[in-house]
Amino acid sequence: MCFSQHSNNHLCYTDTCVQQQPPAMLMYQILSAFCSVMHVPIICSGTDDLGFELLFTSNLNEMHDVALTFDHPAPPWIRGTLVRNGLGSFSNGPRNFSHSFDAFAKLASWRFPGNNSVFFSTKFLRTHFYKDSMKEKTIAPYLLFQGVEPEFSQVEKFQALVRGIDNMNVNIYAFTDNKRNLTEYVALSDFWKYYVFYPRDLSTGGAVSARVSTSSSGFGLLGFLNLLSSAHPLPEPGTGHHITFLSSVSVLPWTSSAISLIRIVSPTKRVTIARWNVDRVPYMHSFSVTENYAILFASPFYVNVKKMVLKAEPFDCLDWYPNRPTTVYVVELKTGKVTSLTTGNVFAMHHINAFETSDTGIILDVSAYTSPDFVKNLEMKVLTDPIKRNQFDSLAQIKRYHISLATKKVRVETFKGPAYAPYTPNIDMPAINENYRARPYCYAYGIVLKKDNVTLSKIALVKKDLCKQNGDKVWYVPYHYPSEAWFVPNPRGKAEDDGVLMLPILDGVRRTTYLAVLDARTMELTNRADLPTVIPFSLHGRFFPEIY
């Protein structure tokens, strides 16, 4: 079993907590028990979600290099900067965002100089969208994931379509030009554009829409709208390059849409590895890369061009076909050869990892959903309603795909959880030891929403053992809401799980966010430091050892 000792006297093991409870928690547990006996859910709704609303409440505070105090000295080998991207403000002036994924991008960082000190910073990403919105004292008309309330006028919707996506609130990454010894740190979303930022002070640089050899950003000369890409580029093994993709939506009836696999050679140089035509462009959030291949799952979730022109709200302009198969594209990185296979209907949100086997096969793990409805239900009106947010299916499922290039067959495998925590295969926001990227591996870390299959805010942080039964471990504390973890390996470690997990966790009882450090082997909380401000829901991030 996994035990974790916390500074507020929680002692947790797997799925159970014995605790000396603070007065606020005791009060809410008494109130919750009263609600249950008296059957008054309207008065008492939300007692199981203490503080959860802070994840989706605007926080306009910005700060730089605020010293934090850990419970214990940080390990001396932790040196570098953890940077995270996510949601900062959910409204401006008279307008509110309809969907949580449209909130203004806000960065947060924790800098570890390696001398037992740590410094916290947080700042909004100064995109054109953000600056125009602040200047106009409303939400300026740019293309959004879903829309605003009150909604844009038809003229504003046309403006939004022309301006495109500009709010990079999903992920961050670093691209290096080895020839010039230049590293560029960028904020990303699921679109081709990105923004440069500077990790030492979180200031914002310029917007970049990098050109590639066979297309250009925006409307191409042949009537293509080059928009969709991935917020999760991946390193190309054995090179200093990275891989991503670009989807080109045809706006002319006599031309086909296309998908391109792109090699990122440097911050400014992109090279097309392969480009192939498709009848309709699928929405893809992430993908996988092995030593010799890139693997893209094209779920039947397609861009509807007519809807896009009329509504200018990308997510509402996607059509889902629950009875159609998923197309799997396997692209050879050296030659650009594309092999198309099919598998069952699935919505593959986050790929976990993939690696090649000795028999011309590929093993690929994803966090999968039965449909995109989960993403649709992350609307603000759902997340801020204690009843509605518990009513939709939020459970992902790890699926392992065995891909045979020899037979062109795909076989699917699922995993079970142990009796003490049967929900462990339901992780999303996955993280691994990046030293095992594109290699055989055993451990995936992630969060499970609604671990009891009832309450969305009961969030567990899970270590899933993909190599043996009953090796799973769980960290869970009531009213504590973890986000995606990042694995920082011990530079002297030899085991895959020798390192720490770092992540911000909202303590709903104390209404405080703290940076948590967990032993990745045992899932014990070994250290924590309270932040001077609450961090709303954080999406993705990375640790940069070169920045300290």
**Mean pLDDT across all residues, rounded?**
88
Strand content: 35-45%
**β-strand number:** 40
Total number of helical segments?
7
Q: Rg to the nearest angstrom?
A: 23 Å
Any idea what the shape is? globular
Distance between the termini: 36 Å
Percent in helix: under 10%
- Low-pLDDT parts are 1-25, 31-46, 215-223
Please describe the biggest sheet, giving its number of strands, its sense, and whether it closes into a barrel: 6 strands, antiparallel
What structural class is derived from the secondary structure elements?
mainly beta
Number of domains: 1
Outline the secondary-structure elements:
Elements: E1 3-5, E2 10-13, E3 16-19, H1 23-38, H2 41-44, E4 63-67, E5 80-89, E6 91-92, E7 95-97, E8 104-112, E9 119-124, H3 128-136, E10 148-149, H4 154-163, E11 171-177, E12 182-188, E13 194-198, E14 203-208, E15 218-219, E16 224-226, E17 234-235, E18 242-250, E19 257-264, E20 270-278, E21 288-289, E22 293-298, E23 301-303, H5 305-311, E24 318-320, E25 326-332, E26 338-343, E27 347-356, E28 361-369, H6 373-376, H7 380-383, E29 397-404, E30 409-414, E31 428-431, E32 443-448, E33 460-465, E34 473-475, E35 480-482, E36 486-489, E37 499-507, E38 512-519, E39 525-530, E40 538-544
Antiparallel strand pairs: 1-2, 2-3, 4-9, 5-8, 5-40, 6-7, 7-10, 8-9, 11-12, 12-13, 13-14, 15-16, 16-18, 17-18, 18-19, 19-20, 21-22, 22-25, 23-24, 25-26, 27-28, 28-29, 29-30, 31-32, 32-33, 33-34, 35-37, 36-37, 37-38, 38-39
